[in-house]
């Protein structure tokens, strides 16, 4: 049975479909509940055969697969999916966390490997990274929020009839914020997508650039668009 190759056309990091293939029903239910509370849809399969069939017939943004499963082990599920041509990102969960175990899982076709026990915040961050990596290529060339316009191809920014000059990093920051307009983006998301960091350097680099960007796109205008959401991150939106 052919597996789905393409991500969903309506892909959004705030509404992903995730399949959890895990035989520990308590652990699977906990994970599904946590993902649901984070704004996603999570389906469950409790053995390898069921998981493979659900992956074959469903359209998922990410699969979370335990290695040790009844009926068909996780690595067999993954290898079969890849043999069928599936490109759906897969995060492997396993109590087997040695280097050789991780290498085996990745070589079987997994995209990432997270040893148990794990922190949900780390699992969610890894799932989001995998989903973004597999998202459809950006086809939008112009973003608009209220009277603010960013042209990706021309590399220009305007607000109303005023041209705004941005440094390259400021442009990337604004582009990412406008691409996710109306959605709060976290520091981790900005570090990964604007600075290409996969760790927090524990500096105020984001705060400095946000401040500079805000002074350029908001300072001389009546309605501010770039907002700080305390304890969560930043969002660009029109509250007018």
**Main beta sheet:** 5 strands, parallel
**CATH domain class of the largest domain:** Alpha Beta
Number of E-type strands: 11
Low-confidence stretches: 1-11
The CATH architecture of the largest domain: 3-Layer(aba) Sandwich
Explain what the structure shows.
It is a single chain. With 240 residues, the protein is of the alpha/beta class. It folds into 2 domains: 17-133, Rossmann fold (3-Layer(aba) Sandwich); 142-236, Arc Repressor Mutant, subunit A, CATH 1.10.10.10. It has 8 helices and 11 strands. The strands form 3 sheets. The protein has a 5-stranded parallel β-sheet, sandwiched between helices. A 4-stranded antiparallel β-sheet has the order 6-7-8-9, with helices on one face. The longest helix has 14 residues, at 120-133. It starts with 16 loop residues before the first strand and ends with a strand. The relative contact order is 0.10.
């Amino acid at each position: 049975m052919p597996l789905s190759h393409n991500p969903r056309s309506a892909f959004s990091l705030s509404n992903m479909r995730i399949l959890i293939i895990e035989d520990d029903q308590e652990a699977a239910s906990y994970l599904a509940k946590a993902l649901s509370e984070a704004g996603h849809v999570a389906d469950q399969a409790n053995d390898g055969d069921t998981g493979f069939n659900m992956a074959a017939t469903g359209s998922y943004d990410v699969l979370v697969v335990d290695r040790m499963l009844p009926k068909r082990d996780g690595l067999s599920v993954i290898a079969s999916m890849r043999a069928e041509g599936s490109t759906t990102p897969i995060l492997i969960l396993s109590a087997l966390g040695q280097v050789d175990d991780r290498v085996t899982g990745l070589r079987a076709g997994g995209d990432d490997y997270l040893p148990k026990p794990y922190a949900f915040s780390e699992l969610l961050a890894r799932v989001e990274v995998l989903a973004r990596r597999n998202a459809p290529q950006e086809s939008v060339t112009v973003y608009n929020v209220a009277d603010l316009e960013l042209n990706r191809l021309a590399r220009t920014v305007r607000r109303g009839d005023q041209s705004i000059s941005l440094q390259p990093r400021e442009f990337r920051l604004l582009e990412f914020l406008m691409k996710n307009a109306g959605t709060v983006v976290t520091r981790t998301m900005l570090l990964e997508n604007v600075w290409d960091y996969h760790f927090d350097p524990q500096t105020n680099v984001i705060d400095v650039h946000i401040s500079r960007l805000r002074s350029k796109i908001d300072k001389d205008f009546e309605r501010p668009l770039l907002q700080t959401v305390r304890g969560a991150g930043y969002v660009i939106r029109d509250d007018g």
